[in-house]
């Protein structure tokens, strides 16, 4: 798997993967125009949306409608300034959602690949390479 990251101008940084372009920008406070989410916002969104895919799949497999179901993600600061210490995912369900599936929803959301990668982080290797002319 490969992504190409480029710099379309200003404080914008885009990632290209397959036929998709994921746009990012910095806020005006951070020197950008605020035209797209900041990279860290996308990182946080990837956690909640990944868990959401697993909740959606769980419900679809059982014929449970997802109307009225949503995830609320909350971040709490950590001991190191500027870093998050805790991420809470709350799966909100409507009153008629079968109680027997509450724990199973939690188990499904816990299988999120983004969360699992954070729990067992990959090794990073960063280097430069001179592009062919």
**From N to C, what is the helix and strand string?**
EEEHEEHH
Give the CATH level 1 class of the largest domain.
Alpha Beta
What fraction strand? 25-35%
In CATH, the homologous superfamily of the largest domain goes by the name K homology (KH) domain
Q: Give unreliable regions as ranges.
A: none
Q: State the helicity in percent bands.
A: 25-40%
Q: How many domains make up the coordinates?
A: 2
Walkthrough of the structure:
The protein contains 3 helices and 5 strands. The chain is of the alpha+beta class and 133 residues long. It folds into 2 domains: 37 residues; 84 residues, GMP Synthetase, Chain A, domain 3. It has a 3-stranded antiparallel sheet, with no helix packed on it. A hairpin with a 2-residue loop joins strand 2 and strand 3. The radius of gyration is 19 Å and the shape is elongated.
């Amino acid at each position: 798997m490969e992504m190409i990251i480029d710099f379309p101008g200003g404080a914008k940084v885009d990632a290209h993967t397959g036929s998709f372009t994921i746009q990012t920008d910095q806020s005006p406070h951070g020197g950008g125009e605020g035209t797209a989410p900041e990279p860290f916002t996308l990182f946080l969104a990837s956690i909640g949306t990944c868990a959401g895919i697993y909740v959606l799949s769980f419900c679809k497999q059982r014929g449970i409608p997802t109307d009225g179901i949503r995830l609320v993600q909350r971040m709490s600061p950590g001991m190191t300034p500027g870093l998050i210490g805790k991420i809470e995912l709350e799966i909100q369900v409507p009153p008629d959602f079968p109680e027997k599936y509450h724990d199973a929803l939690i188990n499904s959301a816990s299988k999120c690949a983004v969360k699992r990668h954070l729990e067992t982080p990959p090794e990073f290797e960063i280097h430069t390479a001179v592009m062919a002319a």
